[in-house]
Write a structure and sequence with these properties.
The chain is mainly α. It is 77% helix and 0% strand.
Length: 363
């Protein structure tokens, strides 16, 4: 009898399948495929931007036409190579990109890469702070709306969400400036910091361009508070735009999982409603939110143009607006391409996170 039990146990052990590793070969194939897709995506975007920028003629005529004599204009065009066939210019531009050369601005004669490094930190800082606002407001109110579904609180939150994503960001920015900077006079209306803080940043040996990090490097609480006060209104204006989408998305997905079969089964076992919401219904609802987050970050970078212009926040959006007015298409082209690359990389990261949370994404 003992021998039979031992044999049965051995047979049972032999027939047991080994536990599948979460990070299986399918996951790494998925990551590699998504990473390789970045290359054609960026290539297509670069191509579209290049030919759209050339649709109205050469950049020098667009930026400086009417301010130079015809002979001087032709000389500048020839020196820059814009009188060559368009396909030759395109191939030359691709070669420059591979070597990190995005050209030189026409209006202020600066390397485009210098513009990107100088003002890019401001845009990334604003986008990061806005994302924090969007996540706190969107997830917090979305969960609250799901908890009090079809009640007065839910209705009020849904109206607030509609107002958030339906209101133009520049109009919301002007309203916030009117309330907090003019009427209440508790927050600065524009800029990234006061002049005194700017002078303090000049003391740094290696400034990062991220004012919050630079203020921490200085170790001056006054400068840090000043930087944060300047960031409140633009971060709110841009963050609330995305928060409206998150509110509705969180509410819908939490309600969907909250009424699913496995949650009902847990409820029948006597699990409290708070635990059902926090443990059983919440985590599955995160997957669509993370997926949509990549697209919302792209919208944030697009909204940064109007937000930075409204608050005179000197980042890439502010500079893009100025270069568009000056018809400096070389600078515009470089900024748009950088934003396109960032969006492609962010979406890749979001896809990887989604695949880690939900294995079904990999197949």
């Amino acid at each position: 009898m003992s021998d039979n039990a031992t044999a049965a146990s051995a047979t049972s052990s032999a027939t047991k399948k080994p536990k599948k590793n979460r990070l299986s070969g399918g996951f790494f194939r998925f990551v590699l495929t998504r990473f390789l897709l970045i290359i054609p995506t960026v290539f297509i975007l670069v191509t579209i931007v290049f030919f759209v920028m050339r649709a109205t003629g050469d950049p020098i005529s667009a930026a400086l036409g009417g301010r130079l004599t015809p002979d001087e204009l032709q000389r500048r065009i020839h020196a820059a190579g814009y009188d060559r066939p368009l396909i030759v210019q395109y191939l030359d531009y691709l070669g420059g990109l591979l070597h990190g050369d995005l050209g030189t601005t026409l209006t202020d004669n600066q390397p485009v890469i210098t513009i990107l490094t100088r003002y890019g930190a401001a845009t990334f800082e604003l986008a990061f702070l806005s994302l924090i606002v969007a996540l706190i407001v969107g997830i917090g109110l979305g969960r609250l709306a799901a908890k009090y579904r079809d009640r007065a609180a839910d209705a009020g939150i849904r109206v607030f969400a509609i107002l958030c994503y339906a209101t133009p960001v520049f109009f919301l920015g002007l309203v916030l400036k009117l309330i907090f900077a003019v009427w209440l006079n508790i927050l600065p209306p524009s800029g990234r910091s006061d002049l005194s803080s700017e002078m303090q940043f000049q003391r740094l040996v290696s400034p990062t361009g991220f004012y919050i990090i630079d203020a921490l490097q200085l170790g001056d609480v006054t400068v840090l508070v000043d930087v944060l006060r300047h960031a409140v209104l633009p971060a709110l204006a841009l963050g609330l735009l995305t928060a409206g989408v998150f509110i509705r998305l969180v509410r819908t997905n939490v309600i969907s999982t909250y009424t699913s079969g496995y949650v009902e089964a847990a409820r029948s076992r006597g699990v409290s409603e708070k635990r059902l919401l926090d443990k059983h219904a919440w985590r599955p609802a995160l997957i669509p939110i993370i997926t949509v987050m990549g697209m919302q970050i792209a919208m944030m970078l697009a909204g940064a143009v109007l937000t930075e212009t409204t608050f005179e926040w000197k980042g890439l959006g502010f500079m893009l607006s100025n270069y568009l007015k000056a018809r400096d298409f070389v600078a515009v082209q470089g900024i748009v391409i950088l934003i396109a690359i960032i969006v492609a990389v962010v979406n890749f990261i979001v896809d990887v996170i989604s695949a880690l949370i939900d294995p079904r994404v990999r197949y």
